[in-house]
Amino acid sequence: MFELKPIHREAVPNALRKAELYRLLNESAQAESICYDILQVDPDNQRALITLLLSLTDQFDQGIPVNSPQELLPRLQGEYEQAYYAGIIYERKARAQLNGGIPGGGFVAYELLREAMFWYERAEAIRPPDNDDATLRWNACVRTISARRLEARLEEKPIMTSE
C-alpha cells in the first residue's frame, strides 16, 4: 500500500492555518488529515490537537464513523481546556442527535446536553479571568433545552405483581 509522507517541522504554522481554513469551509475530513500530519512531527501541538478535536466533532452529524475525540482530552494541557472541550464534545453529540431526527433523540440529546453543562460548569470554575467561553456554551445548552422543550427520560415504574 502507500506510505504517508511526513511534513517538515517548519511547515507546521502554515499547515495549522490551512487546517483551520478547511474547518471553516466545512471540509472537516481534510482538516482532520492535516492535523494528523502536524501531530506526526509535533505530537504536543495544542492548536493541532484542538483543531483535530473540533474537526472530529464537526463530523458527528454526517453519519460516518469518526475517531473518538475523547481520546484527545488527556493530551490537552490544562484542566480548563480538558473540561471545556469535554463539554464541546458532549454538546456537539447532542446537536447531532437533534439534527438527525432520530426517534427518541430528544431524550438522548437532553442527557448529552446535561453532560456538556456539567463539564462547562467545571471549566467555568477554573476559567481564566477574561474567558467566559464556558458560560456562553452553558447558556447555549440551556436555550436549546428550552427552545426544543427537551426533557429527561421518565423513570420506568416497577411492574407490580400480586403474590
Helices and strands in order:
Blueprint: H1 12-24, H2 28-41, H3 46-58, H4 79-100, H5 105-125, H6 133-148
Helix pairs in contact: 1-2, 1-3, 2-3, 3-4, 4-5, 4-6, 5-6
Describe this structure in words.
With 163 residues, this protein is mainly α. The protein folds into two domains: 1-75, Serine Threonine Protein Phosphatase 5, Tetratricopeptide repeat; 78-153. Helix content is 61%, strand content 0%. The protein has six helices and no strands. Helix 4 packs antiparallel against helix 5 (105-125). The radius of gyration is 19 Å and the shape is globular. The chain starts with 11 loop residues before the first helix and ends in a 15-residue tail after the last helix.
Radius of gyration, whole Å: 19 Å
Overall strand count: 0
Supply the number of structural domains.
Answer: 2
N-to-C SSE series?
Answer: HHHHHH
Q: Could you say which overall geometry the principal axes of the C-alpha atoms support?
A: globular
